[in-house]
Amino acid sequence: MTLKEKYLEKIEGQLKEWTAKIEELKAKAEKATAEKKVELQKAVDELKNKKEAAQKKLEEIKKAGAETWEKLREKTDKALDEVKAFWESIKTKFH
């Protein structure tokens, strides 16, 4: 397995994890009071948008050649860091 393939596998695993966390947050929103539901839904939407941005970066890496994918890797890592940071900020707020 190449370094690129290992990286793709790792990132795909992280994205699946974020999908599960989004579903968890959606479930909390459904059970929440009306006011909290609105807040949670906004958080779900933003988390989903950040995850989708990271997913797009991953797709770019899949299509990239050997020289290009390393540059895209930095952008993908940054996008994933944004997802993680946002999750950490809302996790403490809603848990």
From TrEMBL:
Q: Which residues form a coiled coil?
A: 8-67
**Domain of life of the organism encoding this protein:** Bacteria
Keywords from UniProt, A to Z, are: Coiled coil
Source organism: Desulfobacca acetoxidans
Q: What's this protein's name?
A: Coiled coil domain-containing protein
